[in-house]
Specification:
Layout lengths: L6 E7 H6 L1 H16 L8 E6 L3 E7 L6 H7 L4 H20 L2 E2 L8 E3 L5 E3 L6 E2 L3
Antiparallel strand pairs: 1-3, 2-3, 4-7, 5-6
Pfam families: Pkinase (PF00069)
GO molecular function, one term: ATP binding
Organism: Eutreptiella gymnastica
Length: 131
Amino acid sequence: ATTGEQVAIKVFPRTELDCHPEMMTKLSQEVSIMQSMDHPNILKMHEVIMTQENLYIVMEYTPGGELFRIIRNKILSPEQSFRYFHTILSTVEYCHSCSVSHRDIKPENIFVAADGSLRLADFCMATLLID
Protein backbone atom coordinates (compact mmCIF):
# COMPACT_ATOMS: atom_id res chain seq x y z
CA ALA A 1 0.00 0.00 0.00
CA THR A 2 1.26 3.47 -0.79
CA THR A 3 1.06 6.23 1.79
CA GLY A 4 2.14 9.11 -0.42
CA GLU A 5 4.93 9.87 2.06
CA GLN A 6 8.27 10.85 0.53
CA VAL A 7 11.16 8.66 1.62
CA ALA A 8 14.90 8.43 1.06
CA ILE A 9 16.30 5.11 -0.11
CA LYS A 10 19.91 3.96 0.24
CA VAL A 11 20.76 1.29 -2.33
CA PHE A 12 23.57 -1.21 -1.82
CA PRO A 13 24.38 -3.65 -4.66
CA ARG A 14 24.39 -7.26 -3.45
CA THR A 15 27.55 -7.97 -5.47
CA GLU A 16 29.39 -5.36 -3.40
CA LEU A 17 27.98 -6.71 -0.13
CA ASP A 18 28.86 -10.28 -1.09
CA CYS A 19 32.46 -9.23 -1.84
CA HIS A 20 32.77 -7.29 1.41
CA PRO A 21 31.03 -9.22 4.22
CA GLU A 22 32.27 -6.70 6.81
CA MET A 23 30.13 -4.08 5.04
CA MET A 24 27.04 -6.25 5.48
CA THR A 25 27.90 -6.71 9.16
CA LYS A 26 28.19 -2.93 9.65
CA LEU A 27 24.91 -2.32 7.78
CA SER A 28 23.11 -4.93 9.87
CA GLN A 29 24.41 -3.32 13.04
CA GLU A 30 23.38 0.16 11.84
CA VAL A 31 19.88 -1.07 10.97
CA SER A 32 19.51 -2.81 14.33
CA ILE A 33 20.64 0.26 16.27
CA MET A 34 18.48 2.72 14.33
CA GLN A 35 15.38 0.53 14.59
CA SER A 36 15.86 0.14 18.35
CA MET A 37 15.79 3.88 19.05
CA ASP A 38 12.75 6.14 19.09
CA HIS A 39 13.61 9.82 19.32
CA PRO A 40 12.24 12.79 17.36
CA ASN A 41 15.76 13.84 16.33
CA ILE A 42 17.00 10.48 15.10
CA LEU A 43 16.34 9.74 11.43
CA LYS A 44 13.52 7.20 11.16
CA MET A 45 14.25 3.95 9.39
CA HIS A 46 11.06 2.61 7.85
CA GLU A 47 12.04 -0.63 6.19
CA VAL A 48 14.88 -2.81 4.93
CA ILE A 49 14.30 -4.73 1.70
CA MET A 50 16.66 -7.39 0.35
CA THR A 51 16.36 -8.56 -3.25
CA GLN A 52 18.67 -10.72 -5.34
CA GLU A 53 20.22 -7.57 -6.81
CA ASN A 54 20.22 -5.00 -3.99
CA LEU A 55 19.72 -4.14 -0.35
CA TYR A 56 17.39 -1.15 0.10
CA ILE A 57 17.18 0.88 3.30
CA VAL A 58 14.04 3.03 3.32
CA MET A 59 14.28 6.05 5.59
CA GLU A 60 12.62 9.31 6.48
CA TYR A 61 13.15 11.99 3.81
CA THR A 62 14.71 15.25 5.02
CA PRO A 63 14.26 17.95 2.36
CA GLY A 64 16.61 20.36 4.13
CA GLY A 65 19.58 18.10 3.38
CA GLU A 66 22.74 17.98 5.43
CA LEU A 67 23.38 20.53 8.14
CA PHE A 68 26.84 20.87 6.58
CA ARG A 69 25.35 22.42 3.44
CA ILE A 70 23.45 24.98 5.51
CA ILE A 71 26.36 26.09 7.69
CA ARG A 72 28.70 26.17 4.71
CA ASN A 73 26.44 28.62 2.87
CA LYS A 74 25.41 30.97 5.68
CA ILE A 75 26.23 32.09 9.19
CA LEU A 76 23.67 30.97 11.74
CA SER A 77 22.34 33.40 14.31
CA PRO A 78 23.45 32.78 17.90
CA GLU A 79 19.88 31.69 18.71
CA GLN A 80 19.76 29.17 15.85
CA SER A 81 23.24 27.89 16.74
CA PHE A 82 22.14 27.38 20.35
CA ARG A 83 18.96 25.53 19.26
CA TYR A 84 20.94 23.23 16.98
CA PHE A 85 23.61 22.63 19.64
CA HIS A 86 20.99 21.88 22.30
CA THR A 87 19.15 19.48 19.95
CA ILE A 88 22.34 17.62 19.07
CA LEU A 89 23.36 17.32 22.74
CA SER A 90 19.95 16.04 23.83
CA THR A 91 19.97 13.52 20.96
CA VAL A 92 23.43 12.27 21.95
CA GLU A 93 22.26 12.06 25.56
CA TYR A 94 19.34 9.88 24.41
CA CYS A 95 21.71 7.65 22.41
CA HIS A 96 23.92 7.19 25.47
CA SER A 97 20.86 6.37 27.60
CA CYS A 98 20.22 3.56 25.07
CA SER A 99 23.87 2.44 25.48
CA VAL A 100 24.75 3.61 21.97
CA SER A 101 27.81 5.70 21.12
CA HIS A 102 27.40 7.28 17.64
CA ARG A 103 31.15 7.91 17.12
CA ASP A 104 30.76 9.98 13.95
CA ILE A 105 28.84 13.14 14.82
CA LYS A 106 29.52 15.79 12.22
CA PRO A 107 27.38 18.19 10.17
CA GLU A 108 27.37 15.73 7.25
CA ASN A 109 25.51 13.18 9.45
CA ILE A 110 22.87 15.61 10.69
CA PHE A 111 19.91 16.32 8.42
CA VAL A 112 17.28 19.05 8.41
CA ALA A 113 13.61 18.02 8.26
CA ALA A 114 10.85 19.98 6.51
CA ASP A 115 9.95 21.76 9.77
CA GLY A 116 13.57 22.81 10.36
CA SER A 117 14.23 20.28 13.12
CA LEU A 118 17.37 18.14 13.05
CA ARG A 119 17.79 14.39 12.51
CA LEU A 120 20.92 12.48 13.51
CA ALA A 121 21.74 9.76 10.99
CA ASP A 122 24.47 7.39 9.84
CA PHE A 123 25.00 5.00 12.73
CA CYS A 124 27.44 2.76 10.82
CA MET A 125 30.31 3.70 13.16
CA ALA A 126 28.18 3.34 16.30
CA THR A 127 29.02 0.92 19.06
CA LEU A 128 27.09 -0.40 22.01
CA LEU A 129 28.36 0.84 25.35
CA ILE A 130 29.01 -2.02 27.74
CA ASP A 131 29.23 -1.43 31.50
